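Sample pair:
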Amino acid sequence: MTSTLIVRPVAHCDLNHPTCPFSHGVNKGFEILHPAVLSRVLRELKGYVFDEAVISCPNPLLHPRVTELASLMKSVAKRLSLFTPVTGLGKVSKELLEMVDELVVISSSISELKEEEERIKGLLSQGFENVAIYSTVTREESTLLAASEHAEFCRKYGIPLRLGELPYVNKVPFKLRDALVKEGCEVSIPYGLKYGYEASVTFMKDYRVTVLERPSGRACRMLFIDYYGRVGKCPFTRPLLEAKDASSDLLRKVIYSECPTKDMGPDYVPEVRISLRAGRDVIIPPDILALLEVIESTNSLRAACRLLGYNPSTYVEKLRSLEKRLGVKLITSKRGGSLKGVTLLTEEGMRILATYRRVREAIMASLIKENVYRFSFEY
């Protein structure tokens, strides 16, 4: 049985991945796991070696602590994988690349992947061949399209393709297998664990794709350490131990314990709905607020709709209707010159987005203060 060590070294990230909550931290600073804290926990393993270890999106990637953490993890694992959003490729140092066995590039759209195509080609041409693309899926209707587009890209360069939920994010599990089968894909029975996920195989346009889903109660050997040095069974459950209390016996009990979600029945996760009211009669709903945020990141209405699984023509009409009721423009599109095809938020659109983010961060901070770590936002 595959044993997995997962370390999330940072509390917040500045790479602005449009669908990741860690891109929008509840404060402006960065909490980075101290190597001395990780070392103290790993020392207590007393010779235990994991089959795989994962560094989960350790931005800022150029921080010297990241390399130190990677070195420590390498000493207790047979294989080390580094996860990074595609937007962070330019921040991966040569020293860090030489230390890891695999670079897993997280991409939520083919457009952002193609923007970094030259960097990926550069890595491959310099002899670093252990690159994999992790295509994230957040909505059922976008599953097959996202996977097919990423499969075409990966086929071009002979890169392995993984397909799954946004990794290690405390949201309601996405039933990826069901969505693929619904679209007519054949998915194999799970063959084991990869990155702590249950791994199966399907084919997209005759290209092999690894499908990753949460273990869903099956036996596993996992250990998770967060940015404060707190230790737990996996990223989807609350921490069980502080680093100072992590003895050898307790760590092994965590690793060999049953999955905490096994036989627990439904998992009740808070889902927060944020709407903004303008005057007495106009409501700006969650889906429009989410769309404005992703437009701000991508500078493209079409790309934003694709990331969120929205129908572009439907949401063009929704935006126009809302603008008419508000009496102001929320977005503007450039039709000529070097910015042709670019969609930007207007000043009023940015003001609405700032209010939405401020409210969302206040809610997140309040939930975390009450030790509620698992929640999602409706969009």
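Residues 24-30 have pLDDT under 50 and may be disordered.
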